[in-house]
Amino acid sequence: MATRDSKPYVQYFYFLYLSVFVVLQCVLLCESGHNMKGRAETNGMFVFGSSLVDNGNNNFVNGSVAKADYLPYGIDFPLGPSGRFCNGKNMIDALGEQLKLPHFIPVFTDPMTKGMRLVHGVNYASGGSGILDDTGSVSGRVITLNQQIKNFDEVTLPDLETLLDCKGTELLSNYLFVVGAGGNDYLLSYFLSGAYKTLPIQDFTANLTATLSNQLKKLHSLGARKFVLISIYPMGYTPVVKAMCSSASEGCTGMMNQAALLFNSHLKALVDEIKPQMPSSNLVYINTYQIINDIISDPGSRGFTDAIKPCCEVGANGILCKRDGSACLNRNSHVFFDGLHPTEAVNVVMMERAYASDLTAEAYPFNVKKLASL
Fold it and tell me: 341 an active-site residue?
C-alpha cells in the first residue's frame, strides 16, 4: 500500500517506466497484424461508461461530487487513491491484466494523457454518468457518454492518428472498445428523477437501448470494430439500495433487479441486432449480473464471507466511503467495498470470467479472449 508521502515518488517512477516502454512499442501498433505477438493480446482499450469502469477521470472534473481520490479508496492499489471506486483494481484494470496489457489505462482528463501515453488506449468513463445526457445531475458535473465519445473523436483520435501515422480502421481494428454504462440511468435517473414518473419502464429501457445503439454506431463509424458491452449487475443487492429499501417491502430490491434484467436482455439482444448494421464488427456481451449473482447466492464456495455489508465506512449518502474513514481488514472476503461498488476481489472474478468463460450465460456469443484474437 502506498502512503501519502510515498505516492508522488511511486507515480513518478511509474510514469518514467511508462514513457520508456511506449517509445519502444508504439511503432509496432500499425504494422501488419496490428498485434504485439508474445506480449499483449490486443493493442489496448478505449473505455466508456460510469464509476464501475472509471480509472479517475472525475479527479480532474471541477464540480463533480462523485470522486474517489481519497483513502480508504485505493488502499490496495499500487498507486494509492487514484479515483477508482474500489479498494484496489477495478474491472478495467483486471481485464487489462487478463489481456497482458503493459500498464494501467490512463484517463482522458489527466493533462499527462497525451503523446505516447495514448498508444495502449484511454479511459473516458466518468463516475455518476449515464447513457442519457441528463443522468448524473445529482452527482454534480459528470462527463456524459455522448461527451466521452466526442472526446475520443475530437481529441484522442486525431492525436493518435498523427502519432502512429495511420487512420481509422487500420489504426483501431485491434483495440477493444469497452462500454460499461446503464446502471446510473436507472438508479439516478428513472427511479430518482420525477421526469420519468409517467413513463413505463419498458419504454424507458427501449429508449435507453436505442440511444446506446446509436452511440455504438458512432464509434463504429470512427473505426471501432471490437466491442465489449458490460451488463448492469444486480442493483437490488447493493448495500445502498438495501438500505434505501429497508423500510419498504422486498419488492423494492426486486424492482431494481428486474430493471437490471430488463436492460440486460435488451443489451444482449443488441449484440445480434446491431452487428449487421456495423460491418466487420464483433460485439461481446458480459453478463456481470449472472457472475455477481452467483457469488451472492453462494459466497462461501467462492471465498467470500460477506455479500451484504460495505467494507468501508460509508457517508451520509450511503454510496461513497467516508473520507479517511475505516475499512474492513478482510477486504478480499467482501463483495462490496462501498455502498455500490464491488471489491477488487469481485472485479477480478468478473473479468476472469469475461476473458475466459465458455458459458454463453456469462460471455455472449464468446469470451473476450476470442474477441481479442479475431
Answer: yes
Handedness of CA 228, 234, 235, 237 (dihedral sign): negative
Q: How confident is the model at residue 249 (pLDDT cuts 50, 70, 90)?
A: low
In a 10 Å sphere around its CB, with 0-12 CB exposed, 13-18 middle and 19+ buried, how is residue 248 labelled? Answer: exposed
Is there a catalytic annotation at residue 338? Answer: yes
Output 42 or 9, whichever has higher pLDDT.
Answer: 42
Catalytic site residue from 220, 281, 338, 357: 338
Q: Hey, is 254 helix, strand or coil?
A: helix
Distance CA 74, CA 352 (A): 21
- Among 50, 51, 82, 357, the active-site one is 51
Check whether 25 has a pLDDT greater than 90. no
Give me the chain's average pLDDT, please. 90
d(CA 371, CA 248): 43
Helix (H) or strand (E) holding 12: helix 7-25
**Active-site pick, 126, 129, 341, 357:** 341
130 neighbors 136 (Cβ within 8 angstroms): yes
